[in-house]
């Protein structure tokens, strides 16, 4: 077994693989087709004879294969669809116990490998990487890369497989949230139900897309609160999708057949907001020519979403608190109270607790609405989701513009990774729409179609003509630009720049010397 090094420099081919796997998960609804597509990409990129996935069945303490791509040199495919084996057995058992990746260059010299299973006798295994498939709930299975065609498996390949395994594991878990995948046939029979109730709720829950660690935390919280009527407070920067999340909670919960009504508390004056929320009777004020029901009454039995609630005045906060305490409202100008019953979801781009400390928000109302807080991460804290989000927006705008779907080049994708996205998902969405418009009939979104704020100052732009330079030269130009941008961002601090780039400090110094970079 070899020690796994976590410092890895990704090539364009590696970025292409990560991008293709991410887009496959988002764009391919059929689980079987998705896994087959991913494993074929792994097989091609890693130059191996086969790749497979075995899931863990904790009830029966077994592993079982759900999809394999075992291609012998004769061209014949060997499926292992229903093969099951004890979870303590062989390499998978070791990976399960140790919860870490293993590289075996020669299985004949490793006592953890056994060829006693039928499928192993039909397929000769010589070398392998075995990676655990992990989600926040624990290990769900293992991913195999089998038989390097030339040379030996490398530490870099094992690390790249670990990166891919996280996304693949979440995809499998999402596709099987409410039931174990026991056999390949069962998975196909339940595909329509699974797509509607699981994949849509996790990778595309009414538009919420993500597989990063911060988003997995959000999905875990949603699982707890969706089936209740608990009040939810959503905190997040502008553009992170707070209203979208509120709609997910409503339309996937017990009130989904009831009204969902949203109101931005900062968009209206105090008097207008009161009328919108509570309604008014005819003659209550100038222009009140008829009785008008308010949001609280219209949303009876459903959900009220109050966006930017910290913009609400103290007087309105007091009136809202009374509604939540007593379950009654009185329309503006009215003399009678009405019983109301609704679920309240609120949001703000500010820290509600800090607003309480500053005296801007009532403490008693704070405890009423922040029963179940959810903090949406900014896009800069979940950059792993950028390929998924970008692919989603490209597909959506392509349909809107009646165009063939385009794809981002690896370098354009890398530039999206480097940008900090102060406007979050909304800004990314606008950037993709702009780039697709500029691209016209071009099926590749290149860096030249991205805005200058994404590409960086002109003095650091790298213009790559693939027909005139080699891949090594192009990679060198990209590396030099990334190093320059990191140094500029950290005002020349080598240690911080190295951390941003995922390098050791010495590794960064070596690149500075190699590219003759002068930065004071």
Key terms for this structure?
seven-stranded antiparallel beta sheet; 44% helix; disordered N terminus; Helicase, Ruva Protein, domain 3; 4 domains; 520 residues; Rossmann fold; 21 helices; alpha/beta; Beta-Lactamase; globular; five-stranded parallel beta sheet
Report the sheet-strand fraction.
15-25%
The helical percent reads 40-55%
**Structure annotation, total helices:** 21
Q: Assign the CATH class of the largest domain.
A: Alpha Beta
Number of strands: 18
Query: pLDDT below 50 for ≥5 consecutive residues: which ranges?
Result: 1-7, 70-79, 178-204
Ends: how far apart? 44 Å
* CATH structural fold name of the largest domain: Beta-Lactamase
| Sheet of most strands | 7 strands, antiparallel
**CATH homologous superfamily identity of the largest domain:** GAF domain
Helix/strand-derived category reads alpha/beta
What general form does the structure show?
globular
Could you say what the CATH architecture of the largest domain is? 2-Layer Sandwich
The total domain count is: 4
Overall pLDDT score: 81
Radius of gyration: 27 Å
């Amino acid at each position: 077994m070899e020690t796994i090094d976590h410092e890895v420099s990704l090539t364009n081919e590696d970025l292409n693989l990560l991008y293709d796997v991410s887009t496959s998960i988002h764009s391919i609804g059929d689980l079987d087709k998705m896994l087959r597509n991913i494993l074929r990409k792994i097989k091609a990129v890693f130059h191996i004879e086969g790749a497979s996935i075995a899931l863990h069945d904790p009830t029966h303490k077994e592993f079982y294969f759900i999809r394999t791509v075992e291609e012998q040199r004769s061209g014949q495919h060997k499926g292992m669809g229903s093969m099951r084996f004890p979870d303590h057995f062989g390499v998978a058992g070791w990976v399960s116990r140790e919860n870490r990746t293993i590289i075996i260059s020669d299985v004949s010299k490793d006592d953890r490998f056994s060829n006693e299973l039928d499928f192993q006798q039909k397929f000769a295994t010589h070398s392998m990487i075995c990676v655990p498939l992990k989600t926040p709930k624990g290990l769900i299975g293992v991913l195999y890369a089998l038989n390097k065609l030339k040379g030996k498996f490398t530490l870099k390949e094992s690390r790249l497989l670990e990166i891919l395994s996280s996304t693949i594991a979440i995809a499998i878990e999402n596709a099987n949230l409410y039931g174990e995948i026991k056999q390949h046939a069962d998975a196909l029979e339940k595909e329509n139900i699974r797509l509607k109730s699981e994949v849509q709720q996790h990778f595309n829950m009414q538009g919420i897309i993500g597989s990063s660690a911060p988003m997995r935390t959000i999905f875990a919280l949603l699982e707890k609160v969706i089936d209740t009527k608990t009040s939810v407070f959503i905190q997040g920067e502008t553009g992170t999708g707070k209203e979208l999340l509120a709609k997910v909670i409503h339309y996937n919960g017990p009130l989904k057949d009831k009204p969902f009504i949203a109101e931005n508390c900062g968009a209206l004056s105090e008097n207008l907001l009161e009328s919108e929320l509570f309604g008014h009777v005819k003659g209550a004020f100038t222009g009140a020519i008829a009785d008008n029901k308010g949001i609280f009454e219209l949303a009876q039995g459903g959900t009220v979403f109050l966006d930017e609630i910290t913009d609400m005045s103290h007087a309105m906060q007091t009136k809202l608190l009374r509604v939540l305490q007593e379950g009654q409202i009185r329309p503006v100008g009215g003399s009678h109270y009405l019983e109301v019953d609704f679920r309240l979801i609120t949001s703000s781009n500010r820290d509600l607790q800090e607003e309480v400390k500053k005296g801007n928000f009532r403490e008693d109302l704070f405890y009423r609405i922040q029963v179940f807080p959810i903090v949406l991460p900014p896009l800069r804290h979940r950059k792993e989701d950028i390929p998924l989000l970008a692919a989603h927006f490209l597909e959506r705008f392509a349909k809107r513009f009646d165009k063939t779907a385009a794809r981002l080049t690896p370098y354009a994708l890398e530039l999206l990774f480097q940008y900090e996205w102060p406007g979050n998902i909304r800004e990314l969405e606008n950037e993709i729409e702009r780039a697709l418009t500029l691209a016209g009939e071009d099926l590749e979104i290149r860096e030249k179609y991205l805005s200058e704020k994404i590409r960086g100052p002109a003095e650091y732009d790298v213009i790559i003509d693939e027909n005139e330079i080699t891949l090594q030269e192009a990679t060198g130009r990209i590396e030099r630009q990334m190093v320059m941008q990191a140094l500029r961002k950290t005002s020349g601090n080598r240690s911080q720049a190295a951390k941003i780039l995922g390098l050791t400090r010495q590794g960064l110094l070596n690149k500075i010397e190699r590219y003759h970079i002068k930065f004071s």
